[in-house]
Amino acid sequence: MTLNIELSPQQAEPFWDESRNVVNCAGEGAGKSTIGVLKAICFSLTAPKPPSLGWCMGADFEDAYKELVGTSGDDLSIVNIADRLGILDRAGSTISSHADQKCRVHIYVRPTLYLPAIDFYIEDVSGYDPLKIGRDEPDWILGAECSRWLPELWYRAQGRLARKYPRSWGYFSGSPETAQDWFSEIAALGQGPNDQDIVSYYMPSWANKVLYPGGADDPAITKLQNSMSRDRFMARHVGKPSPPRDAVLPEFKHSLHVHPVEYVQGYPVYVFIDPGTTVYAVEFVQIVNQEIRVLNEVYMPQASHAQVITNTLLKPEWKYVRAGVIDIAGSQHHFGQGSSEEAWYRDTHGLQLQAKYWRVEQTVERLRSVLQINPITQRPYLVIHPRCTGMISEMGGGKSPNPAGGLWRMSPQGTPRAENDHASKALGYGLLAVYGTISPYQNETIEGEDKDAGSYMSATRAPARSSLLESLIRSAHASH
Questions:
Q1: DSSP readout, 168-192?
Q2: 345 and 462 in one domain?
Q3: Residue whose C-alpha is closest to residue 104's, from 140, 64, 131, 145
Q4: 259 and 358: one domain?
Q5: For residue 158, what are the CA distances in angstroms to 25, 161, 223, 337?
Q6: What's the whole-model pTM score?
Q7: Are residues 320 and 393 in the same domain?
Q8: Which of 188, 333, 384, 439 sits most deeply, having the most CB atoms within 10 A of its CB?
Q9: Cis peptide before 213 (omega within 30 of 0)
Q10: How far apart are CA 107 and CA 93, in angstroms?
């Protein structure tokens, strides 16, 4: 039995690549999933040592299900191709008709006079909670729509594959929307020599000759190119997102600045707050030696003080909070509810918050300074936990939890836009309160307009260190 499937040259390259980690950034309709399905079947049947277990892994069961079982009428899923080849043991399989339920597919090839039987299972695995990934040891992982994954899921997949190194392998495909998310950075790493055994490909939509027989010159591709911006076309149909040219914080790199940092005993935790009306952001921050750690956040659109404070109090880091910093707009009334400072003091039974006015350029300068690499530790000064998706999205590292949110961008006039800046500004205000401005001479009294507060005010800049925060930091470091 033959499948009669012909791959284009651009599709054949990632298919035949035997590298341990093949990453495929692909345009829409390029056939990235088909390549993965064929690779899983063909490599399993021809391996010197047949596998015992393979995984189809997705951000949720639905993504994994599409490649393992397929949708109605889809003849290029693992189940349907195995059925066509006569190697699907339906009696020994558990195949649900519901995409949100776990499936286990049994592949069995009868022994011949010269060859032993091939007998293995393929399961779909949901990465909805990466910490609950099973402890099984797959021989291969087929990663579906990896650009939708949390980065922790990538690390978990690598940990599973390491158990059967060097025989194990993975094929990871996706269509990233931005050049700054973790998947795009992994793909960029795979374009050259690296110590993670990654080889990457950028596969455009026109690699699929069935959909676009004319290749890059196909009339349909020309129409698509004329219907959208160059950056959008590069991301959606070339599979290679262009780096944003208007990012306020271009130094941010997901692979550098996002890591699952946890609370360190003995060091205080601060809350840095931006009580915006569009989004109300609260960042839990711990400073350990010279490393600034964003441990958790509350990021709520159109929320009241009571809603945000309730969610803040439920965070496990709350019990370690000793002080905080709030935007100067916190002294103003919020949705007619009174000032943010008053609400926080009242509803948290006495949390002390500092509020100072800072120009937006000072906030940006301070944020850009902590995105740099510390020459002593060779790590960035700022590290953000992956669960802080609001802050990560504003810096360009992924999808925002706010449907209307996204990257914090510069305006055509070269100034930061007053949107998608809530978590970033909260962090910036806190760091300015702790460390002061980049330029010492800027610590004079100034006047300026606070657009969030809607008023024209004068204020005195904070010194290099505020008294309360400085005393907490000093006492914590003195005990270590």
A1: -EEEEEE--S-TTSHHHHHHHHTTS
A2: yes
A3: 64
A4: yes
A5: 18, 5, 40, 49
A6: 0.70
A7: yes
A8: 384
A9: no
A10: 9
Helix spans in 295-417 (H): 305-314, 340-347, 360-370, 389-394
Q: What is the pLDDT of residues 176-228, one digit of tens each?
A: 876 667 888 899 889 988 888 999 999 999 999 999 999 999 999 999 999 99
CA 475 to chain centre: 35
For residues 206 and 215, the answer to whether their CB atoms sit within 8 Å is yes
Number of domains in the chain: 2
Angle at 369 between CA 421 and CA 280, to 5 degrees: 20
Q: Are residues 213 and 309 in the same domain?
A: no
Nearest to 78, CA basis, from 92, 58, 96, 64:
64
- If asked whether residues 286 and 155 sit together in one domain, one would say no
Last residue of a domain, one of 194, 210, 238: 238
Q: At what angle do helices 32-46 and 61-68 cross, to 10 degrees?
A: 60
| Same domain? 288 vs 358 | yes
Looking up residue 264, the CATH number of its domain turns out to be 3.30.420.280
Contact call for residues 249 and 424 (beta carbons, < 8 A)? yes
Choose one of 211, 238, 265: the last residue of a domain: 238
Domain of residue 396 covers 254-478
| Whole-number Å distance between alpha carbons of 310 and 305 | 8
Pairing of strands 279-288, 269-275: antiparallel
| Pairwise CA distance, residues 166 & 195, whole Å | 14
In a domain, 246, yes or no: no
User: Is 288 a residue whose pLDDT tops 50?
Assistant: yes
Q: Measured between alpha carbons, how far is 394 from 406 in angstroms, rounded to an integer?
A: 5
Beta partners for 144? none
Residue with tokens 């008023």: 455
Q: Is residue 244 part of a domain?
A: no
Least confident interval from 276-290, 443-457, 460-474: 443-457
Is 423 inside a domain boundary? yes
Structural contact between residues 240 and 202, judged by C-beta atoms closer than 8 angstroms: yes
Nearest-CA neighbor of 368 among 348, 382, 378, 379?
382
Q: Are residues 226 and 321 in the same domain?
A: no
